[in-house]
């Protein structure tokens, strides 16, 4: 079952499968969001945007519109 990163709750983890659009693909890959990497949601801001994730050994903050472009596999 495929989900989007924006749908995960704090503490959940999943593996990146790909991207919903090519517009942000290069930017996200430069930030370490590479297919095959495991991502863990660390925190979600009180109003839901942005979210903090742990990927490749570091923390990264993403806007929901960016997280919505990352397709995950469970």
UniProtKB/TrEMBL annotation:
SMART domains the UniProt entry points to: FeoA
Iron as UniProt keyword: yes
Name the UniProt record assigns to this protein: Ferrous iron transport protein A
Protein's organism: Paraflavisolibacter caeni
GO molecular function: transition metal ion binding
Entries under Gene3D superfamilies matching the protein: 2.30.30.90
Start and end residues of each Ferrous iron transporter FeoA-like domain: 3-74
Origin: domain of life: Bacteria
Keyword Iron found: yes
Residue spans crossing the bilayer: none
Pfam families, A to Z: FeoA (PF04023)
Alphabetical list of PANTHER family matching this protein: FE(2+) TRANSPORT PROTEIN A
Keywords: Iron
């Amino acid at each position: 079952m495929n989900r989007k990163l924006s749908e995960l709750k704090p503490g959940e983890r999943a593996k990146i499968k790909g991207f919903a659009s090519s517009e942000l693909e290069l930017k996200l890959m430069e930030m370490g969001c590479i297919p095959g990497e495991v991502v863990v949601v660390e925190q979600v801001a009180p109003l839901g945007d942005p979210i903090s994730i742990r990927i490749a050994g570091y923390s990264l903050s993403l806007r929901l519109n960016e997280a919505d472009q990352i397709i995950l596999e469970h």
